[in-house]
Design a protein that fits this description.
Elements lengths: L2 H11 L4 E2 H11 L7 H13 L3 E10 L2 E6 L4 H14 L10 E4 L5 E2 L3
Parallel strand pairs: 3-5
Antiparallel strand pairs: 1-4, 2-3, 2-4
C-alpha cells in the first residue's frame, strides 16, 4: 500500500468511520486501478490496527439519527482474521460493508462491554 493511500484512509477517519469498500477503492486509486488482494488487505488492516488509535468493528443503527460503532476485541491478528472471514463470507455488494474502521476515540463500546 502506498503512503498516499494510507494517509487518505487516515484523513477519512478524521471525518467518519470508513467501510471496507472505501479502503479497497482508495487502494485501487493509488495503485493505478489494480484490485486489492487478500494479502494486501490483511496488511493494510494490520498496519492500521497496529497504531492502537484505530478500531475495527460493526456499526449498529440505534436511531434514524445515530449509528453506534461496536469495536471488535482481540489481538491485531484475531481482528484481521475476523475481518477477512467477514469479507470471504459476504456476497456481492455486502463485501463492501464486511467491516468498518474508525478512530478508537470514536468507538461507542467494545464487544462484551
Amino acid at each position: 500500500m502506498t503512503q498516499r493511500c494510507f494517509n487518505a484512509i487516515l484523513e477519512m477517519l478524521n471525518s467518519d468511520m470508513v467501510s471496507r469498500g472505501l479502503i479497497a477503492q482508495c487502494f485501487k486509486e493509488s495503485e493505478n486501478g489494480l484490485p486489492l488482494s487478500t494479502s494486501q488487505e490483511s496488511e493494510i488492516l494490520r498496519r492500521l490496527l497496529a497504531s492502537d488509535g484505530i478500531a475495527i468493528g460493526d456499526p449498529n443503527l440505534l436511531r434514524p439519527d445515530y449509528v453506534e460503532f461496536v469495536g471488535w476485541v482481540g489481538t491485531v491478528e484475531d481482528r484481521v482474521r475476523r475481518a477477512m472471514d467477514a469479507v470471504a463470507t459476504s456476497v456481492g455488494h455486502d463485501k463492501e460493508f464486511a467491516y468498518w474502521v474508525c478512530l478508537r476515540k470514536n468507538v461507542d463500546r467494545f464487544e462484551g462491554a
